[in-house]
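Reopening this one. Same input as before:
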Amino acid sequence: MNPTQTDVIVIGAGAAGMMCALTAAQRGRKVVILDHYAKLAEKIRISGGGRCNFTNLNTKPDNYLSHNPHFCRSALSRYTPQHFIALLDKHSIGYHEKTLGQLFCDEGSEAIISMLKKECDDAGVKWMRPCEVGEVRRSTRFTVMTSRGLLESDALVIATGGLSIPKIGATPFGYKVAEQFGLPMTKLKPGLVPLTFHPEEWATYADLTGASLDAVVSFGKQRFRENLLFTHRGLSG
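Same output, byte for byte:
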């Protein structure tokens, strides 16, 4: 069976995957994007309680904790919150500021998903979903074996995300591919997740569920200000 030839294969059709695919296609590349999940961009759909907090006006490198702070400086200088806001304006999608620079979509998460899909479609991105990925190989080009046939490309992008929320499609696929190609990985740790407690430990605070308070959390030299929310299982924010 002859493989389908393309310039770029993007595995993972979430926010990062779609942004990558549409950008490459707008630069004249032939792009195929595929995902094993039937629904598109589920993590966008649930973000901000379904209202999609899509960016923050105060986004800057100092807001990030990283072993490589130069990456944040480079990435944020090349694509700013204003770039994404301009994309919403292009599609006449309304938004509002909630607190501390947080921007939410007036029409909910579905509007953001539809916008990114349309940008991909307009740029000529080819979709393959649901599509299971089997083996990934590389010689002079990348070869990807899928449930919809064989693909071959010059560039391969893995945008499958982390392990959080497996019930909406999260898998360790990206980590396995990284191991296969000998890419170094840091030890996996939970991040951007609620703090949960044993039910007996949390019973004293159960009546506070739903309450929030303005709080400052510090880690080393970094300080973050945001609402601290009491949930039925612990703390979130």
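So the earlier flakiness isn't reproducible anymore. For the record, The chain has seven helices and 13 strands.
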